[in-house]
Amino acid sequence: MTIAQTVPSQNQTWRAWHDFAAMAKAHPGRPALRVDGVRYSYGQLAEMVSGFAGAIRAATSAEQAPVTGFFADRSVQSYVAVLAALRCGHAYVPLNPKFPDSRNRLILERSGASCLIASPRAQGRGKAILTTETDMTTQAGGGGAPALITVADMVPEPLEPAPHDNGYAYVLFTSGSTGTPKGVAIRHSNLEAYLEATFAAVPYSAEDRFSQNFDLTFDLSVHDMFCCWRAGGELVVPSVADLDDPAAYVKREGVTAWFSVPSLAQKIALRGNLDRETLAGLRISLFCGEALPMELAQNWQAATGQGVENWYGPTEATIACTRYVLPAAGAPVSERFGLAPIGQALPGMKTLILREDGSAAPVGDTGELLVSGPQLADGYLADPEKTAAAFVDLPEFGGRYYRTGDRVLADETGAIFFVDRIDNQIKIRGYRVELGEIEAEIRNRVDGCSVVVTPLPLKSATPTALLASVEGWTGDTRAVLEDLKRALPDYMVPTDLRSLGQFPKNASGKIDRGAIGALVTTNPAAAASGQPKRVRKQVIELVQAINPAISRERILEAPDLMEAGLDSLAFTEFTLALEKTFGIALNQMLVARMSEMSIQNLVPLIKRRMENTPMAKRGPKGKAGNSKGGKGRGKGAQDLKKTVHYRARRAVECVDKFPDFVAAAPHPLALFIGSSGMMSGAVAPVIEARAAELGMPVTAANLGTGKLSNAGTTELAEFVRDTLRAAGKPLAFVIYEVELMQMSSLPSGREIEVVKDYLDGGYEVGDLPSLDPNNIWDPATGGTIGLKEGKTLSDPEGVSASEPDWMKKRATEVMETYLGKTEMVPAEADIFLRGVAAMKEICDTVIGFVHPLNAEGIAEARAANPNNRFDPFIRDLETRGGFDILPHTDFVLAAEDYRDKNHVNKARGAASLSRLLAEAGVKALNIKG
User: Which of 217, 215, 182, 3 lies closest to 89 in space, CA to CA?
Assistant: First the structure.
């Protein structure tokens, strides 16, 4: 089976596209999509769809398969690509930007895609995939290599009626046991059957604002899009930061229709936001993709005051095929092992539970779940063997069924309960994963030795971690894990890889997976002497109780517990366990700091909290009196190549990737240079959207860094100058942050310079551990920082007495500097102006920027200070640098936009500041013009 093979028309309404087109015609001004902080109406989306549809027709031929691939980033172009593909009679194939190029290239080849749409941010990735020695002409379509389509290729065409045949609507790839992803092609008739069943069950309306919490490579995203556009509602696409604090975005955006995996709801609960005030706007809540704990479902119901449903279904049966409706509060519920049932079949679908002998399982007995009905896919692309094994004809049970591989049981009411997986296929973080695929990748890297991947916790319906074991191999396990990160999505990379001399076997002589799991999760021996033994041992045990895959050695060696293997949800659980175990009180800011601590630093901190010892003498983070030790230049400048702080990786990656980013930029560049304030506050997609609204399309680049010194930032600016000179690319404007704290007389801390050392060949990118996505430079987002999967960055509203003394001291230093009470260092000003001069050599519009402050009346108080050092210092910089510096009072933000005195938060502050920065840049450019 290939995409090129279609079936004759069945005169079915192709409503996935036609619903949207009808809504665009009848209600062009109605909101259809909100993404990157910008709202698009149905009419605006339809115009953009017209442009991409014209580009698809111009770039493809009848000889090629009717398939359009696209990079599924969270951009408006991704959603336009979906609709444009359907408009042209193509199936759409999403490629996940988080996946390695090799995996995306394989998906593109196997789908037979005739073209690949890339947003401005993804153009470089698209070129990399299509420019390869791999023979792209051998794809399923057989019509030659795919064409790359960008915004510049858009050719508007009339929105004529699309065909109504029963071709394929989309193709998604799931994990395959042989190491090769399996393509599942869903026809329009499958999708229409699902939508009809959904609308018969759920009262969506045009007034609803739909959450879009899933990646577009996840089939549950199909529900979000087409349920929304059929109802005439608005699809709200959260940012990565929003997904780290989902309750805030639900309340801010007025979401009414929620659909997510249960773990996202659990994150809300752990943050203490599962309450009526936060979630009262929700009127419809569906969960799918993971087992739903009954307690979580009931708490969610209490918080929203509305119904809660648990949906279930494999990709092969089009999104979901069963549903369970939680009874009203106080009514009896059905549960098993604390989990909600997956319910009963959707209208039109059938379920069947078979025992191993092929007979129907009686009530209360377990068996494999099979599903049947109009939502069933044809099978797997170009894989008749797997299709025959999974899709079976059972005339005695009334038709063709799909074998889910899930072990279930049904009670006397007909409600179905998930028990576990029959094979070793699992779902982790909402993604379905074949453990065999991971094992195959590892086996290729360990000389063919036997490999077993164990999901943890053992026997859990909702595993959170993977642990790999290899038999009889003594190589470098860390190197294997690092290599896996370049071949597999992050959710498929095991937390740890352990070597066993010989795998245990069962009575049949086969590898005993259960025994291996029990063996590798056995608690290690007690900690060695040294640090406070009892506390350290308890902390290690708490970490391992949450993620048993993490070894004691890794906990002791890792620079922080996030790098050791805890994600954000797990780290939140860990901090709650600390409070309960040791009777200590933690606050959000301290938790954020703890997420960057090694266990060697955590244990003394816990001891001090237990003893109520104040921490005032430690000073603000990064401003310790002695810069030696810890994560900075601890061993001296001569060892910089080996000991450079991992946060400096962002600058090094920028140097490595910026030239290609520049080459792929479709518009004049807008550069944002500075320290942590700029790094946190400049969101490239928001800046680009706002600049486009103002009539100035730009390609934005966030070049802010959080670890470079003033001199280090100047080095980076000089590198950027040289790169742009060589490329000959036009610049729109440059906004350069005036980092006052780095030019003050306060202790310089542990900031460093790395750019010249890297350019001189002092070390390679691979030598710097990639611990946090905040500290990488990703061209796909224009350098915009994303929250580490799992790293919780709190956004406190201000300093309170309950917060650590170091933060209060830092806030005082910032305030005094802005009030003009802090002495500034002329030599640092000279270094700063050297960086500004580098930018002025290549751009006529360079403006300075003083980060706004979360305080009122600063400018007035400063003006009343007869010894005010602030204003004269700024005027001197302007005079000597020959450029204007925008005062912090020009950037008016709300108190809830800040996470501390002089940094915006990611929940809303970064987007607000980014729009103001874009407006300032365009205004300055217009004045220059």
Answer: 3
Phi-psi region of 326 (alpha: psi -120 to 50; beta: other; left: phi over 0): beta
pLDDT band at 651 (very low <50, low <70, confident <90, very high): confident
pLDDT in tens, 662-685: 998 999 999 999 998 899 899 999
pLDDT number for residue 159: 63
DSSP secondary structure of 118-156: --GGGHHHHHHHHSSSS-GGGSTT-S-SPEEE-GGG---
The rounded distance, in Å, linking the Cα atoms of 658 and 727 is 11
Instruction: Kindly state the tokens that stand for 783.
Output: 């350098």
Please count the CA atoms within 13 angstroms of the CA of 847 that sit on its side-chain side.
24
Angle between helices 262-270 and 294-304 (to 10 degrees): 70
Q: Is the pLDDT of residue 526 over 50?
A: no
Given 472, 491, 520, which residue is the final one in a domain?
520
Which positions ≥6 away from 618 have C-beta within 8 Å?
A: 624, 805, 806
Same domain for 112 and 86? yes
In this prediction, residue 929 carries a pLDDT of: 56
If you write DSSP's letter for every residue of 849-862 in order, what string do you get? EPPP-S-SSHHHHH
CB 435 within 8 A of CB 453: yes
User: How far apart (Å, rounded) are the C-alpha atoms in residues 544 and 525?
Assistant: 13
Instruction: Answer yes or no: do 822 and 859 share one domain.
Output: yes
Omega of the bond prior to 887 within 30 degrees of 0, cis? no
Residue of 149, 142, 157, 100 lying closest to 127 (CA atoms):
149
List all residues 6 or more positions away from 851 whose beta carbon is below 8 Å from its beta carbon.
Answer: 677, 678, 681, 737, 888, 891, 902, 903
Domain that holds residue 450: 425-520
Euclidean distance between CA atoms 903 and 678, whole angstroms = 9
The more confidently predicted of residues 50 and 614 is 50
Strand-pair category, 91-95 with 425-428: unpaired
Q: Please check whether residues 159 and 78 belong to one and the same domain.
A: yes
Is residue 499 within 8 A of residue 473, CB to CB? The reply is yes
Do 538 and 513 belong to one domain? no
566 and 686 inside one domain: no
Instruction: Calculate mean pLDDT across residues 481-494.
Output: 89
The secondary element (H helix, E strand) that includes residue 35 is strand 31-35
Of 160, 187, 214, at which residue does a domain stop? Answer: 187
CB 288 within 8 A of CB 261: yes
Residue 273 has pLDDT above 70, yes or no: yes
AA letter at 812: T
Residue with tokens 């408006």: 76
Specify the pTM. 0.59
- Domain count for the chain: 4
Asked if residue 920 and residue 880 are part of one domain, the reply reads yes
The C-alpha atoms of residue 201 and residue 206 are separated, in whole angstroms, by 16
Tokens at 43, concatenated: 């009419």
Whether residue 725 lies inside any domain: the answer is: yes
Please check whether residues 88 and 176 belong to one and the same domain.
Answer: yes
Check residue 270 and give its pLDDT: 76
Task: Determine the pLDDT at residue 589.
Answer: 62
Contact (CB, 8 A) for 385 and 430: no
- How does DSSP classify residue 346? P
Which range has highest mean pLDDT (336-350, 749-763, 777-791)?
336-350
Query: What does DSSP assign to residue 722?
Result: H
Say yes or no: 579 and 704 in one domain. no
DSSP labels, 897-915: GEEETTEE-TTTHHHHHHH
Mean pLDDT calculated for residue range 798-815: 56
Query: Exposure of 790 by Cβ count < 10 A (0-12 exposed, 13-18 middle, 19+ buried)?
Result: buried
**Please, which residues have CB within 8 angstroms of residue 245's CB and are 6 or more apart in sequence?**
271, 795, 906, 907
Helix 220-231 and helix 15-26: axis angle, to 10°?
A: 40
**35 within a domain of the structure (yes/no):** no
**How many CB atoms are closer than 10 A to CB 100?**
15
Distance CA 374, CA 399 (A): 11
- Residue 714: which CATH number? 3.40.50
